[in-house]
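Reagents: none. Just compute today. YaiO family outer membrane beta-barrel protein.
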Amino acid sequence: MCKISGASPVFWIATLSFLISFSQGTEASSSIQSLFEKARSLKNKGAYEEAIELYQEILKEEPENYEAIIEVAQVYGWKGEYDKSLEYYDKLLGRNRRDYDALLGKAQVLSWKGEYGKAEDLYARVIEKVPSYFDAHLGLVNVYLWSGKYNKALSFLERLEREDPENQRIIKKIFDVLYAKGDFKSARKYYQILVRLDKEYEASQEVIADLCLYTIDTGYLCENIDIMDDWKSSHLTFSYKPNREFTAVILASRLRRFNQADSIFSLGLYYDLTSSLNAYLSLTLASRPHFSPLQRCDIDLVLKTKAGTSFLGGLDYLIFDEGTVQVYTAGLEQYLTGKIYFSYQLFHSRDYDGATSQSHLGKLSFSQEKRYLHTFGYATGSEAFLVESRQEIMDVETKTFFIILKRWFNPRWGMNINASHHDRKDSYVKRSTGVGLFFKF
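Predicted 3D structure written out:
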């Protein structure tokens, strides 16, 4: 058995001081770790203000704590306080210019701020020095996407896809760029790949509807007239929209009036000449018509402004056996809110014998994208805006009230119901009801 020799008082004082300091350091470390856990939990829940307060407590105790600085910079960026976030990233980069995590974070914030040139330079620096930094590659793609450089983004992503064709994040980003570009046909292909890789992934209803390139629309209309036989009509429309700029429409309809029937066929093309100027061209033919035009050519231009106002100008040529009728159109559409818009159109028709007439059409619509559309309308004047027969071009006083209800049950199909009351002075009253279905695939 050994006997411990006596120790001097100085030894015991030093030992006691060490133990006290060690205990305090352990407690402080434990306290800071607890603050980190709480701050991260709040950050992940979106409680950014509370998380920032906890990070500031950590930095008050340890002003040089790297994790606290980079995480609070991240939270400030998520919160939208970009300048404050950049201040913290710059603090880290002031210590080490080769801190690529801080460079990446700063590039992200600059891109959110809209400073795409500076963000692109920083992402390029990170990729040059650390080619395997995958988030830097996707960050650079986001810069191209948000700045509208879609082809540059796709070219960059194609290289990434060749290296890792089954990477869900790459496929998702290609899909995002193609959809933003308006290339629905190609986006549809990558959406199918994405769903195959991630069976739980599903895009929003609006996106799914846009990825349906084909639409079939069919309907039936019955017009009850108090002084003559009922008029009936039906139509079948097929449309193809491979991208945001172009749509082709084929229409077949059958009109039955006065115990006679006309068959009508039409081809229409919609094309965006620029981001703010749209064009529509259609050609309609009737085979041996009894009351419809032999041919009809319609040309419309729509100019959209940033203020939510659109201006319309159009010209219709209606060719009958007796000659050609011209209908000139001018109008505007104004969004009152994001869901409510008003439109007005003026129609001026000139008959082949020189007679002229005018009509006015106003509509108020309430919409919720890909869910419903309610339209209430009123028209007065001649019926030039609905010209389907020679008899309706006469300049007589008319008043028409109508309502159209359109409902999407899901992105792929829906229905519409319409009704109208038409009073032709000293002639007849017409009441119409119609129903239709539309399918997208």
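The first helix runs from residue 9 to 45.
Action item: order primers for follow-up constructs.
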